[in-house]
Amino acid sequence: MTRNESDFRIRPGKVRDRAQRAPQVRRPARGFLADVHRAIRRAGGDPNQLAGKRKASGRFNARGRGAKVAAALKGRNPWSRGLDGTRTRARRVTVKARIVKLNPQRGAARGRSFVSAKAVDAHLRYLERDGVTRDGEKGQVYSADADIADGRDFLDRGRDDRHQFRFIVSAEDAIDLSDLRQTTRDLMTQMEADLQTRLDWVAVDHYNTGHPHSHILVRGVTDDGKILNIAGDYIAHGVRERASGIVTLELGHQTDLEVTDQLRREVNAERFTRLDRMLMAEQRANNEFADLRPDKDMLETMKRNRALLIGRAQYLEKLGLAQQIDPGVWHLDDSAEPTLREMGKRDDITKSMYRALEANGIEAQRGAAQLTMHRDGLQQQIAGRVLAKELAADETGDWMQLVIDGTDGRVHQIELRADRCDDIGRGMIVSATPPPTEARVADSNILAATENDGTYRPSRHIEIAKEQGIVPDPDRCVAAHVRRLEALRRAGIVERHGEDHWSVPQDLPKRGLAHDRKRHGPGPRMEVLSPIGLDQQVTHDGATWLDRELVAQRRDSVRETGFGAEAGRAMDRRKRVLVARRDAVDLGEGRIRAPKDLIQRLEGREVDRVGRAMAADKGRNWKPVTSGSQFAGQLTGSTQLASGRFAMIDDGFGFSLVPWNKTLERRIGLQVSGVGMPGGGIDWTFGRQRGLGL
Hints:
Blueprint: H1 32-42, H2 59-63, H3 67-73, E1 79-81, E2 87-89, E3 93-101, H4 117-127, H5 151-157, E4 163-171, H6 180-195, E5 201-206, E6 213-219, H7 232-251, E7 254-255, H8 256-264, H9 274-285, E8 290-291, H10 300-304, H11 306-318, E9 322-326, E10 329-332, H12 336-359, E11 371-373, E12 382-391, E13 399-406, E14 411-417, E15 429-433, H13 441-448, E16 455-456, H14 458-468, H15 474-490, E17 495-498, E18 501-503, H16 508-520, E19 525-530, H17 534-539, H18 545-552, H19 562-580, E20 585-588, E21 591-593, H20 598-618, E22 621-622, E23 630-641, E24 644-650, E25 654-659, E26 671-676, E27 682-686
Parallel strand pairs: 11-14, 22-25
Antiparallel strand pairs: 1-2, 2-7, 3-4, 4-6, 5-6, 8-10, 9-10, 12-13, 12-15, 13-14, 15-19, 16-18, 17-18, 20-21, 23-24, 23-26, 24-25, 26-27
Helix pairs in contact: 3-7, 6-7, 9-11, 14-15
């Protein structure tokens, strides 16, 4: 058998990369399939769209309106070339969207994912807040055919809707648009054509940031009253592409030079940018490395902006988010995108805090070192003046941001749900309390005075307190402990067998802490310390926050900087007013002696003055509630006075104001009764509403 020496068989082996590597990061070999994918991307294609590689859409995508339109718009190249060969780009528009669940479907349990009507109202209220227009005026709601629309009526029409759509549309060059309102209307008209239904919507334009933008609220129903489901791809891509087309039609395409100028400003930006997105896309295409060497083939856009991309990669290296492997070859850390996005959020918060300082004219007195952001949650109680209250984060959700000028000399930023700060307004003095982490001292005191068989007797507790001699007023102190037991009894933790007989569990502090944390809820709890400012408190005839701080002798907790210094000066002026009105005695050197019941006296004056006026307006007799007096009637609402929040009780003939309690929130309009307690407290009894019914 003869052998042909020219015959041979090729046995391809694995492609190996013999390039020099840095010891810190291993540069893996790129296989044949990766080269194919890279070539497809260079040609403007998407390797994920190959046969067998298409990702299935979710159920909501598949059945939502606008899916076919989104498929045609998704991935459309924004670049085009004119007759003269000049490359131009469509205008960039950012669209943020959120679907807010209002009501659960039949049979579904209402959970945290559903937004309350109170939170929905608060969202619209803060879209309409002051200072958002070009002239710094209040925001104006408009609709498809009305420049002045009724936002409340829009919300009332959608109370029974399953969900609501919220969009924020922000064109990069919105400042150059002749009429932002008309641009929004053009967009909504195009969306109606794409979704094949009339949309019930309202919008508010905001100019209070560097980029003018429109907030659009859309009801989740079609024109025939059915549930409106919009395809997820249309929400993610279709709305943006339609808005970009409308803005481009008015302002024209951007030239290559204009786009490059915009990208140049992103090289040293401490946020997630388009350059970062381009680097990450190149890294994915090159198997975990961004190859920016001049001799490497890449997309036309990458070639034109290679210098900017290298500058961005070098800046990311300074931030510790990228590493140069070879000359012109970079590796971006997996945490680069979340870290940059978090840096962008912090920068946005810092800007909003400086806007709040500027709006209050104190930007010169507060430095960057005094700014404190509680991004990981509030850890300790703070008190101070509210400088600003606005929607937090992307402004599509139901979280509010408060900027508080604290008595500790710092400026605090906290975020919480809108329904937890509905009564908070700018200029008020408030306190923010984090969820409790330790058991109450009162629970430990009760357990210490409890007998071995679990029996607690208030009379015995009073005797123990008198023997110890630590408490100046044992009767009043034990009465406060009994009120705590009443609250725990309603929660089923303790039992009352008589006025002087309680059954207390051995783990009372632990169970009491769990009860307090449940009532507190997640995030900080806000409390209005004073609805009026310091200047008004100085001369006010009722009990003020300054009075309570003076009586509690907490002057040491007030720093002599920032708002703490302002509060300290106001306290000194308040002392002089109290002495002039003979509510306190001047001891000299800035010291005064006030009676123990100073707060009750001042509070009683304001309640009597305001209560008489309100009773006269309602055509009722004024019935003040004192210690030991009983009252009963309908809880008609509440009013916020400088002395605190008070419930309004109307029995049909008389009118009373009594201290407010959190348990009354759900009982407005119902019949209540109670007895005035020593020290100003109320022992409440809740009954049924009057009227016909089973």
